[in-house]
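Predict the 3D structure for this chain.
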Amino acid sequence: MEPMRVTRMLQVAIVIFPNITVLDFIGPYEPLNRLPNVNVVLVSHSKGIIRAEKSLIGFEATATFDEVQEPDIVIVPGGYGVNALIRDKPILDWIRKTHEKTLYTTSVCTGSLLLAAAGILNGLEATCHWRVLPELSKFGAKPTSSRIVESGKIITAAGVSAGIDMGLKLVALLSNDTTCKLIQLVIEYDPQPPFDCGSPAAAGPELVSMARAYAEKNYPDYFIF
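Done. Predicted structure below.
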């Protein structure tokens, strides 16, 4: 088996906030948390329970931004709560500051809008959920519909489930391909969806239109900057 690329203990800071999309951060958390040299911390403005979208599930932020100054990995998930944070100075300042020393700064879904708003995606290709992908250009990034985009040490993932792929990508970068394959097998990540419609290109215009209508009805204030 090939040697581990990084053997020291690593701190992975996952940002959580009200109205976060659960799978956005659980997706990358699941494979990364299985590395023996990774310590995951959920970080937010203040400690305590943070409610996800529709307030059905709560997660505990165990550290504040002030308490996590030099994480090795930053993961910024998305969700319609991003809308309230797009001009939030504490979180944007924290992203900018931590990015200076991270091994990798990453996002899932609309979390890339916060990376862009923090100014670290200027002139770089990045991805996001397909519905709001064009919004990235408003903050100087170059939108691309790829599922995972690597721009140096910045990695952005497309919508929701793409966070699992990104988490496995990070596992491979931090350890080695064999370890990544092992973890992928352990979590039995073997996607076999009932329909081939998980992207706008595969879904076709009619289903895309229906999906937009669904989102506008259920999340009417989604990304109104």
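The helical segments are 22-32, 89-99, 111-117, 162-174, 177-186, 200-203, 205-218.
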